[in-house]
Every structure is written in C-alpha cells, then in structure tokens.
Prior knowledge:
Elements: H1 2-21, E1 34-39, E2 46-50, E3 54-56, E4 60-67, E5 71-80, E6 97-100, E7 106-114, E8 118-119, E9 122-127, E10 130-134, E11 150-154, E12 158-161, H2 167-177, E13 184-185, E14 194-195, E15 212-214, E16 219-221, H3 235-244, H4 252-259, E17 276-277, E18 288-291, E19 296-299, E20 331-337, E21 346-347, E22 357-360, E23 376-379, E24 388-389, E25 393-395
Parallel strand pairs: 1-7, 11-21, 20-24
Antiparallel strand pairs: 1-3, 2-4, 4-6, 5-7, 8-9, 9-12, 10-11, 12-25, 13-14, 15-16, 17-18, 18-19, 20-22, 22-23
Amino acid sequence: xxxxxxxxxxxxxxxxxxxxxxxxxxxxxxxxxxxxxxxxxxxxxxxxxxxxxxxxxxxxxxxxxxxxxxxxxxxxxxxxxxxxxxxxxxxxxxxxxxxxxxxxxxxxxxxxxxxxxxxxxxxxxxxxxxxxxxxxxxxxxxxxxxxxxxxxxxxxxxxxxxxxxxxxxxxxxxxxxxxxxxxxxxxxxxxxxxxxxxxxxxxxxxxxxxxxxxxxxxxxxxxxxxxxxxxxxxxxxxxxxxxxxxxxxxxxxxxxxxxxxxxxxxxxxxxxxxxxxxxxxxxxxxxxxxxxxxxxxxxxxxxxxxxxxxxxxxxxxxxxxxxxxxxxxxxxxxxxxxxxxxxxxxxxxxxxxxxxxxxxxxxxxxxxxxxxxxxxxxxxxxxxxxxxxxxxxxxx
Length: 396
C-alpha cells in the first residue's frame, strides 16, 4: 500500500512539473521539414516555372511550361530526387498542372516539340494523322513484289520538312558538330567514327560537284548550289543531322503516307493527277518517263532540256500537303531497315532490324517509274551516292 501511495504521489508531482513548464499544455513538436523543387534549365523549345521552389510534404505545387515560338508543350517529368520515382500529377497532359509534394526533393522538367514554322532553317508542314493503304496494286505498271498493298495507321499528326535538306543547311550542321575534312564524326567519348558525307569536289573525280565541299577550314555548299538538296550523304549523316535539328528521319510509312498527299486512290504518284511523271513535274531522267494512260513506262530519247544535276528545292509543284520534291531531285533516307511489309494492318510501323537501310523518292538521274510513290530501294547505311539526301520530321 505504501509503495502504491508513493508511486501515485511521484506521478502527480511529475505531471505538475510538466504542466508548470508548458503554460499552453501543448507538446513541443519538431520543426516540419521543407523540401526543394528543382527546375530544369536549358531545355530545348521552352522553359518551366513553379509556384514554389520549396514546400512541405503534402503541399500543392503548380508547374507551368512556356514553349518558345514555333514549339509546343508535349509532356511533364516530375520525379523524386532521392530515387527517381515519378511523382503523380493531377493531370499529366495539362499545362499548367499540379502535384502534391512528397517527403523528398523533386526535379521538374518538360518536353517540348517543334510546331509549325521554321526550325534550324527548315520550313515545316503539318501532316495529319490517318489511315490508308500504302504500296501499289499488282496491276500498277512497274509494280514490284516488295510493294505489297498494306494498311498503315499514322496515329499522331507530325511535322515534315517542306523541302529536302539543302547544302547550306547540311554544311551548317557539319561545322556546328565539328565534322572534319574526311567527313567522319564520332558522337561521344569512345564512339566509333561514322562517315557523314563525301566532299562532292573529290568524290567521283568531282563529276557531280553540287553538294558540300571542304575548303580547308570548314564545310561550304558548292558554289551556286546553296539551295540545292545535299547529296553524298550516308544514312548515318542523315540520321545525325535530323537528331541535331531536334527531329528524326521519317519512318518509311510516314514518308509514303506524306508523299501521297491528299490523294485518296492508290495511284502511282502523289503530284498532279497522280497518273504520270513527265518532263516539268520533277527533277528526273526525263527521257525515261511514265504515263499510266500510255501503259506506264515510256522512252523518248529525242526530248530536250534534261539537266544532269539536282534542281533548287521547290522548283516544281508541291503535293496536296504542300511538300516539295517528294518525287525526284534526291533519294531520301528513312529510319527503317529494309524488309517485306507486314501482312496485317499496323499502327506507326517501323522496321527496326535488317542489313540495309531504305531510301525513297528517286533522284535526278532516275527514271519516272523509279519515282513512283510505292517504289522502294535499299542501300548500306555507309553508302553515300550522288543522289542520296534526306528530309526531317518532327513527331508530336
């Protein structure tokens, strides 16, 4: 009994002592931790701002993306700084949007995509998403077995260069990234150098000197050919340029889809009425032309006016989308490896395995039948010929 009375008295005294020490009768809590909101800087195409650069766990932070002129907001990246886990956003597709601050510092960034306008000097055309048959029917004159008709869906709008990349534009790239006189370039430490292009003044003994040349200190367009499509470009050079410009090479499906323009039938060409490729429609070997009304391929060696070189980009009429030179002038490298088409309908198809890369469109020394929308050819990725060029796309 004495022990119980003693214990009760001791507890009462202790409680009284605590009460006297805290006039408000509230427990003393440790200070709440404040976490940092780190905003990415130097983003290509825009800037990001936040409503607070510091916040307590549970507080709401607003993030806003501001695209630069000619660019559009695409997507958010908000991650914990301690482990890289994504932080949930109220609406991941909205701009602005909000998130609840976790018990960790966070890093905020955004992706921007190029919009309509001009980027790196490339004028762009919006190509709307859609579904259509690509390839050619068996009855099309000059149809080849690898042009099998197949249905492809392009699920998102994309932007495509209005013209092929010019000598002036490609020379700017070569100088900007430090490609030397031999045309080789290695991306990153330890990377194997890849051939970007040939000097057109040296290649083939200068016979086709209407590309880019090395003047002893830098790359320049061949005189008088600044606005002509670049030639002697390898697939590696084309791909590197496209990525440097912030885009990519088109997939083969994107290329043919865009080439056909607003045409709704499976016709041989995407310009004019779609049935012929004759002198005055494109830069090609005009003596060997094509007219569906006359059975396809036609030859007339008596024609006059053939120019044995490229033309300035945009010299002929565009297709229904407003794209120039999709037929002729230069072959254009695409992203795909060469293979037979899938037999089932596909969405955003690209062939990612093979031994040769695909080129499309035909060039200044090709016949009319080789300029057909469905015509395909393939080459080694390291090959740089006198009619090999490129065009860039910017995906949404």
